């Protein structure tokens, strides 16, 4: 009865709960799913990425990141920062414009949407009239130029988004000054590009899709120059001094155009098809960057020969005689160049090329010889091979941390040493409280070690298990092998490689002991590798043992995949985790559970057939236990047979339909004619269809039985030093829980350290518990005399945990998908239970013990269970009394992969995949909260951007009052300086000021 | 063998405690016994729960005569009306077990020995339009055998009729428990599962709840066919008409009482096998067992069993309420009370 009363009306406990628990989704790690737009502000040194789901993410220096979400969840098409402002404008695919601002609030900056706006044409005009194709935020910061499909260029005021109708640049106005024989109305359709003159803000370059380019004078509202391109235009770029610009075209060519005051219709200086002469793909974007040594960098996207390389995603960099076509692993969304942002500088002097591809971010160092890639501190592509599992280890000892970093640094030698070039904003978040590792297992047999301590999930080290096995595809790296005279000079960059050579290599379970550096990794084909951290390269033989989990069962045939072939003889391993023993489960079914005890030097593993214990010190199999129900054919035959049987049943049902159709035809055949039969058939089809539509989704209600399939599937393994047999002596033990609600407990005898190599480890089954509700066992835990979970192996030895209380009686906590149960030990009697499913209709998917500290006092902390259910809720359940403390909705229940990927940390945080490439980080704790906290200040502008644009003083004065003063102060100082030096300058300024008025 | 001791009439305590006391008094802590008493009509009636124990204590005049009998040797036919007058037969059966050729009787004994069956429960506290069905899977090999689906039902709300999503029984498997009991039917709306309302829960959630409770599933339904409802006189037609459309009464704790009790007593215990021995049920960790100890600290004479019978005893409850002291007497075997009362087992 008491269980059904609402829990917790104890005010003291309620207050304590508020100090302990708090749910926050703090930060998204990894690479945004389906990026669709890129923007960069050289002023703020921030990069913005928009996605197809309407998210916008800003990144600066490591730790500086912001996220915003458009309410409409529409694709972000373009992102433009307002020059010299903490503002940006996004264009979505519903043709709406959004103004975002970085505002300081409570000591940190926040990204907020300020305005939204959709361009409206006159009533009755087609939608294309106002479909925005090009956006130009003017350097005056007060207007946006919006090029449209119709060819009109609308001017809207910022930040109000008021359309200044009198300033609209219509195609008619443009055509006025252009000889009619060259152009007609159609030449001015679809504005492809809008570019402001780098030195004269009163001039903008307008590029129309059909090739016409016009230099427009905003002051006088007229075209001063026009350039007739013969090819369809893709994009434009000004040279830094404004004397030339470059256009790129659909046919894979680019053209340089001179801009001089005397020639109103100049001819192109140079027209090149870089990858000609055969037809090439379009060059969609181009940069022209000047350097001190005179040789410019020309950097463009696309332009590859259509027939042979049309499928490549390339960006080419040409600098003098050097030319490289960077070949990306996925479609290029957009790119930008980081160059000298100092407006007074004479040259661009590009330093880095930043490329946003669909699946990863690649940054190329243009300063260093060979243009190496830069290792990004964030935006890591978690999914470069699909993530198959993850494992989190909190509070890594410094020693191990340094060794992993050192192993990783040896792998990263081909990266540039350049500091991360996107370094805007200041990270003001406190230093991460501890060193945390997130290990991800991947489909290609690799394990990646991520620094998960802070906001930036950063790759430390990558471990590959492939070398132990013989695979079809030899890891003969053909990356970066570039022949001297190969044309085009392609060079593969990026790490995204979703194609696994062999799905059997996939990593399924990981267990790292942070004290000893032992790592156990288990995979899809029943392989279990035990590894040790070695700081040096080494060549050695990997010991090999087989564990036959079907030992006594006769006459079964495994129809699933074969085990992986191993490499004979010594294998060379690079510094890092090096495997020294391989245990191969037979049948080679996927390893479903894994546990490692580094103190006893034992590793336990389980599959759908049973589990085994291996002594990795003596390299000897201690025992195996078959958990298979003899009638469970499905588990025996392996995964492939399931597919077969599905196919078979499909085939049968089709046959059934056909047969019934034939019989119905036969029945009517005697009396009717062909049309009747047809009619009957049609009716039958209709009926069948209707039946299918009307048949409601129904669920069978049936108790679980011992004969169900996959009851032997080993779900969890657990080592504990506890009172298994009698209450006077504790001993090492191994616990295993299965899908059918069975728990096996084995009493282990581990020889003392001095005889560890001489005597064998012995195991004896001591207990077998059958939960009558037969739900899968997902967690086993032993609580000591103080009801504290037993510490991890070696934790006490390293003085990091109080030794467990071996005086009081121990308790066994069993978590099944449906219930939490506490039993006494050594005599098993049931003490407490919480029937979660019976009460709430949800099932346990993930469970872990987490330590929660109070945010009010440092000296209070408690252990609770953090539970994720199949409905995506997170519940915190107290230990040892199993009282529900609090519940938070976290993941959508439809997001099955998100729920499956969730890992909890030991301190009440967690991660789950929100897309194949992104982890969402959340926190249940008030104390352990890792979230971005950063400030973006308007940088102190040492030399004003607009000093050379003296004509815009009036414009500057009109800008918003807040920064107006600041601006005037700066320009004032500069003018003062000028005054002192040159009277002529003063006069000039005065005259322009007057002229402006 | 006889024992005599006193109990406080006004505070007889629980049956379990009494049972423990009996075991203690007879020094037979681990022997299962049947307990009977003679009522005012001279019938031998069983004591096996709190209710009939209290009844027995309250009717004692002044002595309560108790008979205990080792369970495996028990003669269940001994209980019932006129048992005392049939004592001769009883006695002869007892004395000549080899003649005992009666067909075995149906066992009526301790609650845990009953085999619960599926039934309609809580008729008295539910609206007439609702039916609470307990499907008892224990002891049968029959599958539960039904399916549920999503659907919508009409409710009366302050804003008028409203369509709300509901869960319905969609199919009964022939030969399944659900069908064979005849208590559930297709299109019955499921309102509660083991006392938890299903409104607001998804089909999958309700499925999981039912499977989690599958050992002792209690479903409250609104039958699709409302003509077979139990009509109670106490209710006016008006009120039942209202309750037709309303959901369950809000006084759920009362309603739940019965359910939970049912759940508690029928909750399956998990099974443990120790050291590859025989499987047995996992007991509940007993919170305390000192009550028996405190009740009596009496040295008992103990006689060995004869003829496979446990020595039975006769106890007299002291009539004087409030007396704490134990009056206790060990009669000699063959005392006249034997002849008088003709217990089934005493020698």
Automatic annotation (TrEMBL), chain A:
GO terms for molecular function: GTPase activator activity; myosin II binding. Pfam families: LLGL (PF08366), WD40 (PF00400). InterPro entries: Lethal2_giant, LLGL2, WD40/YVTN_repeat-like_dom_sf, WD40_repeat_dom_sf, WD40_rpt. Residues 272-372 form the Lethal giant larvae homologue domain. Keywords: Cell cycle, Cell division, Cytoplasm, Exocytosis, Phosphoprotein, Repeat, WD repeat. WD repeats lie at residues 69-103, 433-451. Gene3D superfamilies: YVTN repeat-like/Quinoprotein amine dehydrogenase. It is found in: Cytoplasm. The keyword Signal does not apply. One of its GO terms (cellular component) is plasma membrane. Residues 658-680, 946-971 are annotated as: Disordered. SUPFAM superfamilies: WD40 repeat-like. Its main location: cytoplasm. The keyword Transit peptide does not apply. Residues 658-669 have a biased composition (Basic residues). GO terms for biological process: cell division; cortical actin cytoskeleton organization; establishment of spindle orientation; exocytosis; Golgi to plasma membrane transport; regulation of establishment or maintenance of cell polarity; regulation of Notch signaling pathway. Belongs to the WD repeat L(2)GL family. Interacts with GPSM2/LGN, PRKCI/aPKC and PARD6B/Par-6. The complex is enhanced during mitosis. Interacts with DCAF1. Part of a complex with GPSM2/LGN, PRKCI/aPKC and PARD6B/Par-6, which may ensure the correct organization and orientation of bipolar spindles for normal cell division. This complex plays roles in the initial phase of the establishment of epithelial cell polarity. This is LLGL scribble cell polarity complex component 2. The gene is Llgl2.
From TrEMBL, chain B:
This is PAR6B protein. SMART domains: PB1 (SM00666), PDZ (SM00228). It comes from Platysteira castanea. Residues 228-257, 327-347 are annotated as: Disordered. Residues 1-71 form the PB1 domain. The keyword GTP-binding does not apply. Keywords: Cell cycle, Cell division, Cell junction, Cell membrane, Cytoplasm, Membrane, Tight junction. Residues 234-252 have a biased composition (Low complexity). It is found in: Cell junction, Tight junction; Cell membrane; Cytoplasm. GO terms for cellular component: apical plasma membrane; bicellular tight junction; cell cortex; nucleus. Belongs to the PAR6 family. Signal peptide: none annotated. PROSITE patterns: PB1, PDZ. Residues 132-225 form the PDZ domain. Coiled coil: none annotated. GO terms for biological process: cell division; centrosome cycle; establishment or maintenance of cell polarity; regulation of cellular localization.
């Amino acid at each position: 009865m008491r269980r059904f009363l609402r829990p917790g009306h104890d005010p003291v406990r309620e207050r304590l709960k508020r100090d302990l628990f708090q749910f926050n989704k703090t930060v998204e790690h990894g690479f945004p799913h389906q990026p669709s737009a890129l923007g960069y502000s050289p002023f703020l040194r921030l990069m913005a990425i928009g996605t197809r789901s309407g998210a916008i993410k800003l990144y600066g220096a490591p730790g500086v990141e912001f996220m915003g979400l458009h309410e409409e969840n529409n694709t972000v098409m373009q992102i433009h920062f307002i020059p010299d402002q903490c503002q940006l404008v996004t264009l979505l695919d519903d043709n709406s414009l959004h103004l975002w601002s970085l505002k300081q609030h409570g000591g940190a900056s926040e990204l907020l949407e300020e305005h939204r706006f959709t361009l409206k044409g006159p009533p009755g005009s087609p939608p294309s009239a106002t479909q925005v194709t090009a956006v130009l935020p003017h350097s005056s910061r007060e207007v946006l130029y919006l090029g449209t499909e119709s060819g009109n260029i609308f001017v809207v005021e910022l930040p109000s988004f008021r359309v200044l109708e009198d300033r609209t640049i219509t195609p008619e106005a443009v055509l006025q000054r252009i000889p009619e024989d060259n152009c007609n109305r159609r030449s001015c359709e679809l504005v492809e590009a809008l570019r402001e003159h780098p030195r004269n803000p009163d001039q903008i370059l307008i590029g129309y899709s059909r090739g016409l380019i016009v230099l427009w004078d905003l002051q006088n509202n007229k075209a001063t120059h026009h350039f007739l391109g013969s090819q369809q235009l893709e994009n434009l770029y000004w040279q830094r001094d404004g004397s030339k610009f470059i256009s790129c075209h659909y046919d894979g060519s680019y053209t340089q155009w001179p801009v001089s005051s005397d020639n109103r219709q100049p001819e192109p200086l140079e027209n090149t098809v870089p990858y000609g002469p055969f037809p090439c793909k379009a060059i969609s974007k181009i940069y022209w960057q000047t350097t001190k040594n005179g040789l410019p960098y020309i950097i463009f996207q696309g332009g590859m020969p259509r027939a042979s390389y049309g499928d490549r995603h390339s960006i080419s960099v040409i600098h003098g005689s050097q030319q490289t076509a960077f070949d990306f692993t996925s479609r290029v969304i957009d790119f930008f160049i980081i160059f000298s942002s100092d407006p007074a500088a004479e040259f661009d002097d590009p330093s880095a090329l930043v490329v946003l591809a669909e699946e990863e971010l690649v940054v190329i160092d243009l300063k260093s010889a060979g243009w190496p890639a830069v290792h990004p501190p964030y935006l890591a592509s978690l999914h470069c091979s699909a993530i198959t599992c993850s494992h989190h280890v909190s509070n890594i000892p410094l020693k191990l941390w340094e060794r992993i970093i050192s192993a990783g640094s040896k792998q990263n030698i081909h990266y540039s040493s350049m500091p991360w070039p996107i370094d805007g904003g200041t990270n003001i978040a406190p230093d991460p409280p501890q060193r945390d590792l997130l290990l991800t297992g991947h489909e290609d047999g690799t394990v990646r070690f991520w620094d998960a301590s802070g906001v930036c999930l950063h790759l430390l080290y990558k471990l590959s298990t492939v070398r132990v096995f013989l695979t079809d595809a030899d890891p003969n790296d053909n990356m970066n092998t570039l022949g001297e005279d190969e044309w085009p000079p392609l060079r593969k960059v990026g790490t995204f490689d979703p194609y696994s050579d062999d799905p059997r290599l996939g990593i399924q379970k990981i267990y790292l002991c942070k004290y000893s550096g032992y790592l156990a990794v288990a995979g899809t084909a029943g392989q279990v590798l035990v590894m040790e951290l070695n700081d040096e390269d080494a060549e050695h033989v990997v010991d090999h043992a087989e564990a036959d989990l079907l030992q006594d069962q006769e006459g079964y045939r495994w129809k699933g995949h074969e085990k992986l072939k191993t490499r004979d003889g010594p294998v060379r391993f690079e510094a890092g985790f090096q495997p020294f023993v391989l245990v191969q489960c037979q049948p080679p079914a996927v390893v479903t559970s894994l546990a490692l005890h580094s103190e006893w030097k034992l590793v336990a593993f389980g599959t759908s057939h049973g589990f085994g214990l291996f002594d990795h010190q003596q390299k000897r199999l201690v025992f195996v236990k078959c958990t298979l129900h003899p009638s469970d054919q499905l588990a025996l035959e392996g995964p492939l047979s399931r597919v077969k049987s599905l196919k078979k049943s499909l085939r049968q049902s089709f046959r059934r339909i056909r047969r019934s159709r034939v019989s119905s035809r036969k029945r009517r055949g005697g009396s009717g004619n062909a049309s009747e039969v047809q009619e009957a058939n049609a009716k039958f089809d209709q009926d069948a269809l209707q039946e299918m539509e009307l048949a409601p989704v129904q669920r069978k209600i049936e108790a679980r039985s011992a004969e169900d399939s996959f009851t032997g599937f080993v779900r969890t393994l657990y080592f504990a030093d506890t009172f298994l047999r009698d209450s006077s002596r504790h001993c090492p033990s191994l616990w295993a829980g299965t899908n059918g609600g069975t728990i096996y407990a084995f009493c282990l005898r581990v020889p003392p350290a001095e005889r560890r190599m001489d005597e064998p480890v012995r195991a004896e089954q001591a207990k077998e518990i059958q939960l009558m509700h037969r739900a899968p066992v997902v967690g086993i835990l032993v609580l000591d005399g103080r009801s504290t979970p037993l510490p991890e192996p070696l934790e006490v030895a390293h003085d990091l945990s109080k030794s467990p209380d071996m005086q009081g009686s121990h308790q066994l906590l069993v978590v099944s998908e449906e219930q939490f149960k506490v039993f006494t030990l050594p005599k098993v009697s049931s003490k407490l239970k919480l029937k979660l499913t019976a009460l709430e209709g949800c099932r346990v998917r993930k469970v872990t013990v987490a330590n929660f500290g109070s945010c009010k006092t440092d000296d209070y902390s408690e252990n609770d269970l953090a539970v994720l259910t199949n409905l995506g809720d997170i519940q915190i359940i107290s230990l040892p009394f199993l009282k529900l403390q609090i519940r938070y909705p976290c993941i959508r229940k439809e997001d099955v992969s998100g729920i499956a990927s969730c890992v909890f940390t030991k301190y009440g945080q967690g991660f789950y995949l929100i897309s194949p490439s992104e982890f969402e980080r959340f926190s249940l704790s008030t104390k352990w909260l890792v979230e971005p906290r950063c400030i973006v200040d308007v940088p102190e502008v040492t030399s004003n951007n607009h000093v050379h644009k003296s004509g815009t003083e009036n414009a500057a004065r009109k800008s918003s009052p807040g920064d107006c003063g600041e601006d005037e102060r700066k320009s004032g100082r500069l003018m003062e300086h000028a005054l002192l030096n040159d009277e002529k300058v003063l006069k000039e300024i005065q005259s322009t000021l007057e002229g402006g008025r | 063998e006889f024992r005599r001791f006193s109990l406080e009439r006004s505070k007889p305590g629980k049956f379990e405690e009494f049972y423990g006391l009996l075991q203690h008094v007879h020094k037979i802590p681990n022997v299962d016994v049947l307990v009977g008493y003679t009522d005012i009509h001279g019938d031998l009636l069983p004591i096996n729960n709190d209710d009939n124990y209290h009844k027995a204590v309250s009717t004692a005049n002044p002595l309560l005569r108790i008979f205990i009998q080792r369970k495996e040797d028990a003669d269940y036919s001994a209980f019932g009306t006129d048992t005392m007058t049939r004592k001769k037969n009883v006695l002869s059966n007892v004395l000549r077990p080899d003649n005992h050729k009666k067909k075995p009787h149906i066992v009526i004994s301790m609650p845990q020995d009953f085999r619960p069956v599926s039934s309609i429960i809580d008729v008295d506290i539910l609206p007439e339009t609702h039916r609470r069905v307990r499907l008892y899977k224990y002891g049968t090999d029959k599958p539960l055998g039904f399916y549920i689906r999503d659907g919508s039902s009409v409710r009366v709300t302050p804003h008028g009729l409203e369509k709300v999503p509901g869960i319905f029984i969609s199919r009964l498997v022939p030969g399944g428990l659900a069908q064979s009991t005849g208590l559930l039917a297709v299109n019955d709306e499921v309102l509660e599962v083991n006392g938890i309302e299903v409104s607001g829960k998804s089909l999958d959630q309700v499925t999981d709840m039912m499977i989690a409770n599958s050992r002792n599933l209690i479903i409250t339904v609104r039958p699709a066919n409302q003509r077979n409802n139990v009509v109670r006189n106490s209710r006016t037609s008006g009120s039942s008409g209202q309750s037709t459309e309303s959901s369950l009464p809000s006084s759920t704790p009362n309603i739940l009482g019965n359910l939970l009790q049912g759940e508690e007593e029928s909750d399956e215990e998990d099974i443990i096998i120790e050291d590859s021995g025989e499987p047995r049920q996992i007991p509940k960790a007993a919170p305390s067992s000192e009550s028996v100890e405190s009740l009596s600290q009496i040295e008992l004479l103990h006689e060995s069993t004869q003829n496979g019978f446990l020595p039975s005893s006769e106890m007299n409850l002291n009539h004087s309420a409030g007396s704490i002291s134990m009056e206790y007497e060990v009669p000699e075997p063959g005392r006249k009370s034997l002849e008088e009362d003709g217990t089934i087992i005493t020698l």
